[in-house]
Amino acid sequence: MPLALVALAIGAFGIGTTEFVIVGLLPQVAADLGVSIPSAGLLVSGYALSVVVGAPLITAGGSRLPRKKLLVGLMALFILGNLLCAVADNYTLLMIGRVVAALCHGAFFGVGAVVASGLVAPDRRARAIALMFTGLTVANVLGVPMGTALGQSFGWRSTFWAVTALGVLGLIGIIALVPPQPASDGLRGELEVFRRPGLWLALGTTALGFGAVFASFTYIAPMMTEVAGFSPGAVTWLLVLFGAGLCVGNVLGGRAADRSLMPSLYAILALLVVVLVAFVFTAQSQLLGAVTIALLGVVGFATVAPLQTRVLQQAEGAPALASAANIAAFNLGNAAGAWLGGVAIDAGFGYTAPNWVAALMALGALGVALAAGRVGPRAGARISPADESAHGVRAGQGPIGGS
Hints:
single chain; mainly alpha; about 0% strand
């Protein structure tokens, strides 16, 4: 795999860390800035909403920039946002810093996925995307726990100084290692692909599929403490177990998607339904609950590379904005899944009820994916030289329009 993918993964690691590390620092932030815990929690919501808004807007605004320059600009924006967080002496400035950092999130992963897929041969594109997203999974396993520990030991601002340094490292890597990238065909071409029904079905699959993961994952802590009987201190290790599953699933999903995209996606979503239904019952046991959490990480994140690859396939010719829209769909799914899981708990169905909600969402994702499989190019088929010529794709490069 090209070294440029490592540079993209470093950027993804920094972005993934800054998104989630604030969760472990909420008590320190709230106490230091004199706000309530719920108010501090809005720093998480503000980030997520900024990702949803920023992903399409920033990508559209930079549609005429060469993609390497756009990535460099996005990392600079990320550095600025975290620098504002590091020096913030009040809640308002900290929120502004979070919003600025979040604006680059969706566009970076969207454009980065296009660049990553264009650095390798067509039959290795999903694995290249998975490698870039490895930075995000490692952020959950290592970046968030280490950032939390750093912030608890030296103050929460030290975490944002460290993340700022990660951003600088990612910026240097992109400048040094990512080869020159042409611009897209412009905003009109990027918007044109949204007339394709297959693209909307692909985005719907993403929102439902990843929403299913977060409908369950959001409530792992009360599920494991109140139902399985784990101590609160054990939740950290259960989250590490989940994060390890993410890493495994990311690799397996990329490999499976390169072999046969849509059949792999069907199988992964079907397995996700099974795991989520099983979790309703295995949550009663500490051992089985822990095993299921790991499996949820594996199967849940195995969807990422196939989902992102499917969107790129449906948006062939002008993929950058569609790819960023898919990142927004991931975040919309996260928000919807967490909300619906909470509704089930508030309705009195118990702490395992979010797993039923999640299973229904995953089943819906499978249904949409099956419908999507009937639209557009046949997924998973080997691209012949004739097909490459017909679709404007050459080995090691992206679709028409440059990637």
